[in-house]
Amino acid sequence: MAYVINKDECINCGACEPECPVEAISEQDDVRVIDPELCTDCGACAAVCPVECISQG
Length: 57
Fold this sequence. Notes:
mainly beta; Alpha-Beta Plaits; two-stranded antiparallel ribbon
């Protein structure tokens, strides 16, 4: 199951994006989003999120 970002809690700091080994994270409408088709469920993004808004969907 792919990881998802809670858009209401995301502060758009960008810490997650460089951690993604498959480049599944991008910026849209001033928040980060994860492409579920690309996400490999590694959890690297969730581990670095300072506001803990990333979880398995």
